[in-house]
Recover the amino acids of this structure.
């Protein structure tokens, strides 16, 4: 299995700078023994990024933001550019999280604009896709995911796609304690990889890291990541404490090395 394992914590609107620093300090020691090929990312709110970049410096912990605007600068009150993130020591950025789509009007077209800006600045995007409960129950999961991939990844070259991490997060599993079964998640991940193959060719599709997200915890991470097409996780609630996040990372690493 040549794909990397990438486990990212999405802190959402949680943690002040002091709290974020404390979490990272503890996490650094907790994950020191985890296999070095496991990529560990934390994504704090904008105001906490600086403290976390500083706390993570020289460690294996990478830092990501939770959103990025597509314009390089200008009259966009409340927004942050890719260059601002890059020059702040940020490496990753989450794009198109379902909460952004649900509450802040994010569409596949704006995901695509943000994604291109992130790539142009040399950031590593984590692009989120996923269906709602209504869409799943209506048998529309694959159509929704295909549209999110075609629209969100529009105009990307195969070379650009190699820089992108995808996160499949069924909306009904986020923060609900309701996880997709490993088999159900794997079936959807396999569909996503098949769609990537159609859009970018087999070689690129085989190399793209596709994370699972939605109530991933220490207790289910190993089994989920043991699935052939699941290459890590995007973690909300369980990433807010160093103990549970470190334990989840250890479990995911066990699932990954068994493949
Ligand atoms: P959760 O959130 O782990 O709390 O379900 C995942 C996410 O929204 O990225």
């Amino acid at each position: 299995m040549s794909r990397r394992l990438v486990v990212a914590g999405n802190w959402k609107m949680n943690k002040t700078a002091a709290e974020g620093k404390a979490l990272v300090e503890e996490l650094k020691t907790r994950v020191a023994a985890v296999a070095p090929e496991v990529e560990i990312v934390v994504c704090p709110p904008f105001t906490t990024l600086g403290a976390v970049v500083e706390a993570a410096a020289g460690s294996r912990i990478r830092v990501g933001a939770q959103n990025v605007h597509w314009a390089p600068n200008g009259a966009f009150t409340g927004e942050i550019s890719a260059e601002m993130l890059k020059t702040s020591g940020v490496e990753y950025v989450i794009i198109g999280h379902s909460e952004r789509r649900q509450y802040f009007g994010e569409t596949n077209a704006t995901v695509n604009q943000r994604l291109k800006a992130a790539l142009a600045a040399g950031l590593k995007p984590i692009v989120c896709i996923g269906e709602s409960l209504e869409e799943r129950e209506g048998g529309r999961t694959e159509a929704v995911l295909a549209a999110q991939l075609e629209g969100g990844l529009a105009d990307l070259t195969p070379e650009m796609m190699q820089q992108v991490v995808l996160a499949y997060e069924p909306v009904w599993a986020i923060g609900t304690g309701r996880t997709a079964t490993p088999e159900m998640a794997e079936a959807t991940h396999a569909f996503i990889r098949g769609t990537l193959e159609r859009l970018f060719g087999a070689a690129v599709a085989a190399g793209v890291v596709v994370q699972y997200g939605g109530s991933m915890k220490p207790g289910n991470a190993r089994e989920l990541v043991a699935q052939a097409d699941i290459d890590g996780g995007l973690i909300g609630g369980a990433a807010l404490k160093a103990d549970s996040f470190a334990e989840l990372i250890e479990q995911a690493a066990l699932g990954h090395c068994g493949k």
Observations:
- The two ends are 6 Å apart (CA to CA).
- Residues 10, 169, 174-175, 213-216, 234-238 surround 2-phosphoglycolic acid (CB under 6 Å).
- The longest strand covers residues 5-10.
- The chain has twelve helices and eight strands.
